[in-house]
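Narrative of accomplishments. A recurring question from our advisory board has been how the design workflow behaves on a single, concrete structure rather than in aggregate. To address it, we present the structure tokens for one chain from the evaluation set, followed by the sequence designed for it. No filtering or post-editing was applied between the two.
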């Protein structure tokens, strides 16, 4: 009997092997020879592992644990564990054949299926590589309100594109609610809508000035956007015969004095006209003489020539004047204001 041992196995011996022995005399002659049965030498290890789950939210922790053995079931004492997720590499060690590792998922990792690779190598360069996958949920994270501008005049159109983004800033199609509030915090429009489309609101021609608000609510997220409606002080004038109409086409109470100009004679009228209202003045009742005039109206920022005006005065009794109802102001009001 004879014993050969122990011998460190090198990488060159991987694969099918057998032992061959020869007995030689002192002169070198072969006295006996024999061969063993074939056997396999491998550098592959056996890995058993598990994850705590296969579906995660961004920011969750993946718990990875496992044990490493040889093909014969022997415990592998120590080595290095390399974990690769989404092209990021993490390392830990194992001792007495076991390891565990906690890997926190990035808060902004894209949603969908992700590969997880585990590579194990012991101190003798024996190794094992395994691959699995897990899923990352898509989480609504950012609600954007993109408005076409921030300053508007009445009758202009407000346009708002609402975009919902996930944790990786990828667009998520969704539905929600949009509400428009005027500067008195009253709801002007409220409706359901789909994200990634442009929502529109046509401002009324008497839209009240001030800071307006748009509130969007989508997937548990809320966003507010503010814009301003400008103050518009403006009136239109129209002359039919001796009847002058003044229409407030602005969005605030018009209180600017108006000057009626009859050639070289000016008459100043105080005003108080609500948005949408019209005031009518019978010019034949103003304190001027009968005759033909070049008639103009003037405000603080406007002078308008309304052309030729012919006044024919008719003397009225006090009773007739009172019957007219407006003996002192010469005005009548028609309008749509509250």
């Amino acid at each position: 009997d004879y014993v050969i041992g122990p011998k460190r196995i090198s990488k060159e011996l991987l694969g099918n092997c057998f032992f061959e022995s020869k007995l030689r005399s002192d002169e070198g002659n072969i006295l006996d020879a024999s061969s063993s049965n074939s056997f396999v030498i491998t550098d592959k290890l056996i890995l058993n592992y598990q994850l705590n789950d296969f579906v995660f939210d961004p920011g969750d922790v993946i718990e990875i644990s496992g044990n490493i053995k040889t093909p014969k079931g022997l415990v592998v004492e120590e080595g290095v564990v390399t974990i690769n997720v989404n092209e990021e590499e993490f390392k830990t060690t194992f001792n007495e054949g076991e390891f565990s590792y906690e890997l926190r998922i990035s808060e902004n990792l894209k949603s969908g299926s992700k590969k997880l690779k585990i590579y194990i190598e012991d101190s003798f360069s024996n190794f094992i590589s395994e691959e699995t996958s897990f899923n990352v949920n898509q989480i609504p994270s950012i609600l954007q309100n993109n408005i076409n501008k921030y300053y508007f005049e009445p009758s202009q159109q407000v346009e708002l594109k609402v975009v919902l983004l996930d944790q990786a800033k990828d667009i998520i199609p969704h539905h929600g609610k949009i509400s428009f509030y005027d500067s008195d915090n009253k709801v002007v429009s409220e409706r359901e809508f789909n994200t990634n489309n442009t929502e529109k609101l046509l401002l009324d021609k008497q839209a009240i000035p001030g800071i307006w608000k748009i509130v969007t609510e989508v997937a548990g997220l809320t966003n507010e956007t503010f814009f301003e409606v400008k103050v518009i002080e403006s009136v239109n004038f129209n002359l039919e015969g001796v009847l002058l109409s003044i229409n407030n086409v602005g969005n605030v109470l018009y209180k600017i004095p108006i000057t009626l100009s009859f050639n070289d004679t000016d008459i100043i009228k105080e005003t108080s006209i609500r948005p949408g209202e019209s005031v009518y003045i019978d010019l034949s009742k103003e304190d001027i003489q009968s005759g033909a005039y070049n008639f103009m109206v003037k405000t603080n920022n406007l002078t308008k020539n309304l052309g030729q005006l012919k006044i024919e005065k008719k003397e009225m009794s006090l009773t007739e004047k009172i019957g007219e109802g407006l003996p002192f102001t010469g005005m009548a009001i028609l309008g749509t204001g509250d």
